[in-house]
UniProtKB/TrEMBL annotation, chain A:
Residues 9-415 form the FAD-dependent oxidoreductase 2 FAD-binding domain. GO terms for molecular function: steroid dehydrogenase activity, acting on the CH-CH group of donors. This is Succinate dehydrogenase / fumarate reductase flavoprotein subunit. It comes from the Bacteria. Gene3D superfamilies: FAD/NAD(P)-binding domain, Fumarate reductase/succinate dehydrogenase flavoprotein-like, C-terminal domain, Succinate dehydrogenase/fumarate reductase flavoprotein, catalytic domain. Its cofactor is FAD.
TrEMBL record, chain B:
The chain crosses the membrane at residues 38-58, 98-119, 159-180, 186-206, 247-270. The keyword Transmembrane helix applies. This is Uncharacterized protein. It comes from the Bacteria. It comes from Blastococcus haudaquaticus. Keywords: Membrane, Transmembrane, Transmembrane helix. Residues 1-23 are annotated as: Disordered.
UniProtKB/TrEMBL annotation, chain C:
It comes from Blastococcus haudaquaticus. Pathway: Carbohydrate metabolism; tricarboxylic acid cycle. NCBIfam families: dhsB (TIGR00384), PRK12386.1 (NF009052). GO terms for biological process: respiratory electron transport chain; tricarboxylic acid cycle. Its cofactor is [3Fe-4S] cluster; [2Fe-2S] cluster; [4Fe-4S] cluster. InterPro entries: 2Fe-2S_ferredoxin-like_sf (IPR036010), 2Fe-2S_ferredoxin-type (IPR001041), 2Fe2S_fd_BS (IPR006058), 4Fe4S_Fe-S-bd (IPR017896), Beta-grasp_dom_sf (IPR012675), Helical_ferredxn (IPR009051), SDH/FRD_Iron-Sulfur (IPR050573), Succ_DH/fum_Rdtase_Fe-S (IPR004489). Keywords: 2Fe-2S, 4Fe-4S, Iron, Iron-sulfur, Metal-binding, Oxidoreductase. One of its GO terms (molecular function) is 4 iron, 4 sulfur cluster binding. This is Succinate dehydrogenase / fumarate reductase iron-sulfur subunit. One of its GO terms (cellular component) is plasma membrane. Residues 5-92 form the 2Fe-2S ferredoxin-type domain.
Length: 598, 276, 251
């Protein structure tokens, strides 16, 4: 078998914010480090992040500090977050942002010359360090340039299909070059998964093709566990028209900068959807909400800036009640509230996106928006301080890791999550590698087996086309495990997923191994299916509504479920096993925070 | 230092300066696949610039009909030899009579336009076909651009600008002299005065919007906030700079029109309409 | 709403290839990338194409459409007549891998050669203070999504493979400009810009600015200012003299 082999201390899978940050940290701690990514360097989904990086730097509001950020994060996640992750995240995010400046990032500035911060849903104070509405691009480019400056090896357009393990933990990874289809194996005692999310299992999504859940699935196969998989965030504002751009993200900054949501009758309907949980901190009248933008001390936040799950559900209800726009969304209006110049300055890429793709001038007319699958809160269950999964040598950071965001992620907390936990994962991976470096090997049988599995779709003839299976999976998840869920629908979804698994086992692909997207998709589909199954199983099990999980048949939150996490693992027969696990107990001094700040 | 691990492809193959089809590129024989009229723009540029060159050469060598009291053609100003018609500028020396006084001063406006960042684009594309239009193959086998002599001289653009700014002062002075009548009395204005004024104004706009000017007034600074006045100047020049190409063409036309107007007056073909 | 469009797509690899004709459905509001995906899903499962975000933010789906370098995801089908044939070819300037996918490692090699960002120390309170007006110029260049369309259209390397060694291309000239204008950076890259990255090869014909999907003014705001900065250092006796007698502090 033709196989390229490499040896490293740390292999990072994924080159988004978390992966690159992990690689930089591992390298700086003396580990021989490689990054493996499915796309070209700098194209990772992180570039799509628009709003900013949440960090309690207190550049605009001296009252802000990590405790307030911690509280906002926990409340946004409906208290299901791992408290320790939320704590580390809130404490370390400001330093992670500042060090980006040492690597060349150029954030927008305050009048004092400090990093400017903007308002976002669920955050008590203006907290998001940003560059216009292209913060993700700035983040990825800064980390990319740092990675290049450090001379870290990057395997671009290279897909990992399998993690290799022995009895003591991780020994490496196996994959193929997309360009040539040739196989490659990395021997490494530490592997950091930073593969992002799962959005491509859904029909309407803001995620790119890379988001096939490979990291989730690889971890599961290697013996790790997934937590909180039932929680999928539907971003309230995706484009809805024209159909080909349906799902593309419309940044929350539109609302942070003054945009409001209206139904077809022209009403600001969000005032009708303020949940009791947030009533104390949300404006009751339009006047108060409008005053808040300039005077945050004496006014409460507009309901448009409630956490994403609340807003997405509200939009969904309005559309269902027949008060939607002609194309099945609601109106997001900033044109009538801010000057054209302000809009173009603060939201340049939104302006551009609507102008180019929908022929809508957002400085003159309202946008049509609706919910779009955006983020999975669930992911690999990790130790909060080291991001170590249950398999020794396996680490996970960023969207692929679970626990940090509980049942719902606040906007802006994703980019800070990547930096804080990317760094911690890289550090821990380097330390682990130095302990285990001489004691691993990659057995030939395991490599040959991985290669056989990868080539299987070429061996079958007359089988089904992978695109058709992907389409059916996306439709299934969209229809049956979407934003509002019921038991019968999810049972049906599980049946369909079982049928799809059989179809995937019989796929065949045309052409040869060189840059063959049909083959690549055929290899991604099993990942998408197993992750979809995890989501559906966990969602069926959790008989309550909370955050990114809304059950029509169990519309209320439930105190018992508030103390329970659902954990997915791989059963001996290869199926997905689900167990209940008590939520980690928050120490008293952190619990006090919820009393002291209101 | 590696950023992409060894992959057996993607290395640059330097030193194949033959202009022929490069190794490993997609085998597309057509020189371009554009379906629009990409040749129109370079064609217009060639026609207009050539017409100007022919006209201005004819006029510069003609050595006549460039002065019609109180107006002087911009081709001949500043007129610095004893052979000059009219009395608009100190006469420095006496040259051979077969050399037109326009020739001595040609180097400044010609130098400015020849090294101008906008005209460089225009003539490299339309005359040198390098490239004739975006994504349309150029015919040359070798290309080194402005990396070596003689084109290295383009880097002296700012000196041409300094000279041109001086000439702008002189041409403005000429335009102001247009407020005197044939006898030298102030209080006159004719169409010619307006023509010269408009020409001077456009020349100012053209030179001040220049990229070198933008650099000199503030572009070279890295901390605008420490130099508020220069930042303000840079902001203004930057606004003008956005229209540099437009000013380049308008001022070219205005120079030719101003000259033609003086020519027509001097030959007696027309008479100047006087406002007062 | 739906109509059958004629497409010609270059298919092949390094050993050769040609334009193949397809007839494919087009719906309202679609972009070229949608149509290419439809071809993949229905007629040519192994048609190679690179893409990621499909929203003009990542710069992956660069190709040449009717001979013009463009992002496929930002080229609306409504810009063509229903009877027009749309020709899609890979970027010409780079080696082809397969179909519409090219080997863009030239760009990554050049990126790695640029002297890295080198900041002045932080201030006493641990922050870097910069005014908005000081960061705005470099911010414009940091909008770059690295689609490499400017590199593709630049005739210096498009028509002269041999120049690739000496010339870094517009993307990296504006990267140099970005670093040179960066308020924190203390490295002088002007000599390197001229000697190592081939700034002099650029004859400012502005095709890079024409194709930039981000609307970055590469030539006017990046390359020309960089040329002027190089002139300060290399070709202008007055500024040279000024720097020698200390009249021109590095600002």
């Amino acid at each position: 078998m033709e196989l390229e082999r490499h040896e490293y201390d740390v292999v990072v899978v994924g080159a988004g914010g978390a992966g690159l940050r992990a690689a930089i940290e591992a390298h700086e701690n003396g580990a021989r480090t490689a990054v493996v990514c499915k796309s070209l360097l700098g194209k990772a989904h992180t570039v799509m992040a628009e709003g900013g990086i949440a960090a309690a730097m207190a550049n605009l509001y001296p009252e802000d500090n990590w405790r307030v950020h911690f509280r906002d994060t926990m409340r946004g996640g409906k208290m299901l977050n791992h408290w320790r992750m939320a704590q580390l995240h809130a404490q370390e995010a400001p330093d992670r942002v500042r060090e980006l400046e040492d690597w060349g990032a150029l954030f927008d500035r305050t009048a004092d010359g400090l990093i400017s911060q903007r308002d976002f849903g669920g955050h008590r104070y203006a907290r998001l360090a940003h560059v216009g509405d292209r913060t993700g691009l700035e983040l990825i480019r800064t980390l990319q340039q740092r990675t290049v400056a450090l001379g870290i090896d990057v395997y671009m357009e290279c897909t990992v299909t399998r993690l290799l393990t022995d009895d003591d933990g991780v020994t490496g990874a196996f994959g193929y070059w997309r360009e040539s289809g040739r196989f490659v194996a990395w021997q490494a005692p530490s592997v950091v998964l930073a593969t992002g999310g799962i959005g491509k299992s859904y029909k309407v999504t803001s995620n790119s093709w890379e988001y096939t859940g490979d990291g989730h699935s690889l971890a599961l196969q290697a013996g790790a566990t997934l937590v909180n998989m039932e929680f999928v965030q539907f971003h309230p504002t995706g484009m809805v028209w024209p159909p080909s751009v349906r799902g593309i993200l419309v940044t929350e900054s539109v609302r942070g900068d003054g945009g409001v949501l209206k139904n077809s009758a022209g009403n600001r309907f969000m005032f009708d959807y303020i949940p009791d949980f947030f009533r104390k901190e949300t404006a009751e009248t339009e006047d108060e909400a409008d005053r808040w933008y300039d005077d945050k001390k004496n006014n409460r936040r507009p309901p448009e800036l409630l956490p994403r799950d609340e807003v997405a559900r509200a939009i969904n209800s309005e559309v269902k009640a027949g008060r939607g726009t002609p194309h099945g969304g609601v109106f997001l209006d900033i044109a009538s509230r801010r000057s054209a110049e302000y809009i173009r300055k603060r939201l340049p890429s939104m302006y551009h996106q609507f102008k180019e793709l929908a022929e809508v001038d957002i400085t003159a007319e309202a946008m049509e928006v609706g919910p779009t699958c955006h983020y999975v809160m669930g992911g690999v269950e990790v130790d909060p301080d080291t991001e170590a999964a249950r398999v020794p040598g396996l680490f996970a950071a960023g969207e692929v890791a679970g626990g940090m965001h509980g049942s719902n992620r606040l906007g802006g907390n994703s980019l800070s999550d990547l930096l804080v936990f990317g760094r911690r994962a890289g550090l821990a991976a380097a330390e682990h590698a130095l302990k285990r470096i001489d004691r691993i090997a990659l057995p030939d049988e395991a490599l040959a087996d991985a290669a056989r599995a990868a080539l299987a779709p070429f061996d079958r003839e007359g089988g089904e086309n992978p695109y058709a299976v992907q389409h059916d999976l996306q439709q299934t998840m969209h229809d049956l495990v979407g934003i509002i869920r019921t038991a019968p629908e999810m049972e049906q979804a599980l049946e369909r997923i079982a049928a799809l698994k059989e179809r995937v086992a019989n796929l065949s692909v045309e052409g040869h191994r060189q840059y063959n997207p049909g083959w690549h998709l055929a290899l991604d589909l099993p990942h998408m299916l197993v992750v979809s199954e995890c989501i559906a199983r966990a969602a069926l099990e959790r008989q309550e509504s909370r955050g990114g999980h809304t059950r029509d048949d169990f519309p209320a939150t439930d105190a018992e479920w508030a103390r329970t996490n659902l954990v997915c693992s791989r059963a001996p027969d290869g199926s997905v096993a689900l167990t209940r696990q008590p939520l980690p107990q928050m120490p008293g001094e952190l619990a006090e925070i919820f009393e002291e700040v209101s | 230092m590696t950023t992409t691990a060894p992959r057996g492809t993607g290395a640059v193959t330097p030193g194949r300066g033959d202009g022929g089809p490069a190794p490993r590129r997609a085998a597309i024989r057509a020189r371009h696949l554009r379906t629009d009229r990409w040749w129109l723009q370079p064609l217009i540029t060639v026609v207009v610039l050539l017409s100007f060159v022919v006209y201005s050469s004819f006029r510069a060598f003609q050595n006549a009909y460039y002065f019609a009291e109180p107006y002087i053609s911009p081709f001949y100003s500043p007129c610095i030899t004893t052979g000059c018609e009219g009395d608009t500028f100190p006469e420095f020396f006496t040259g051979p009579s077969f050399i037109s006084p326009a020739i001595y001063i040609l180097v400044i406006p010609l130098g400015l336009r020849a090294t101008c960042y906008y005209y460089r684009k225009a003539y490299y594309r339309s005359f040198w076909l390098s490239p004739p239009a975006c994504a349309v193959g150029e015919p040359h086998k070798r290309y080194t651009g402005e990396s070596r002599p003689p084109l290295l001289i383009q880097n002296l653009h700012r000196y041409a600008l300094y000279g041109a700014l001086l000439f702008n002062v002189i041409l403005t002075y000429d335009a102001i002299l247009g407020f005197r009548d044939e006898t030298g009395e102030w209080g006159h204005m004719g169409v010619g005065t307006l023509v010269l004024l408009a020409n001077a104004a456009l020349l100012w706009l053209y030179s001040l919007s220049c990229h070198s000017c933008r650099h000199i007034v503030g572009g070279r600074l890295n901390h605008f906030s420490k130099h508020p006045l220069r930042y303000k100047a840079w902001t203004q020049v930057s606004k003008l700079n956005a229209s540099h190409a437009k000013f380049a063409w308008l001022s070219l036309f205005s120079v030719a029109i101003a000259d033609a107007y003086v020519f027509l007056l001097a030959t007696g073909t027309i008479t100047d309409f006087r406002f007062f | 709403m739906t109509y059958a469009a004629s497409f010609r797509v270059w298919r092949g690899d390094v050993t050769g290839g040609d334009l193949q004709d397809f007839t494919v459905d087009v719906n309202e509001g679609e972009v070229v990338l949608d149509v290419i995906h439809r071809l993949q899903a229905t007629q040519a499962g192994d048609l190679a194409v690179r893409w990621n975000c499909k929203a003009g933010k990542c710069g992956s789906c660069s190709a040449e459409i009717n001979g013009r370098p463009r992002l496929m995801c930002m080229t609306r089908m409504s810009t063509f007549g229903e009877g027009d044939t749309v020709t899609v070819t890979p970027l010409r300037t780079f080696p082809v891998i397969r179909d519409l996918v090219t080997d863009v490692s030239y760009n990554y090699d050049k990126a790695a050669q640029i002297p890295a960002f080198n900041p002045r120390p932080r201030e006493a309170d641990g922050s870097h203070r910069m005014q908005q007006v000081d960061v705005e110029r470099s911010q414009e260049f940091r909008k770059c999504i690295e689609c490499f369309l400017c590199q593709d259209t630049c005739h210096v390397i498009r028509d002269h493979e041999g120049n690739k060694g000496a010339f870094a291309g517009p993307r990296y000239l504006i990267r140099l400009a970005e670093l040179d204008m960066h308020p924190l950076d203390v490295t002088d890259r002007r000599d390197a810009a001229q000697d190592d990255f081939g700034l002099g090869y650029c004859n400012i014909t502005k095709c890079c600015s024409e194709v930039c999907p981000e609307g970055i003014h590469l030539t006017d705001n990046g390359i020309i200012p960089l040329k002027e900065r190089v002139v300060d250092r290399r070709f202008d006796p007055l500024t040279w003299l000024g720097s020698k007698i200390g009249r021109r502090p590095k600002d």
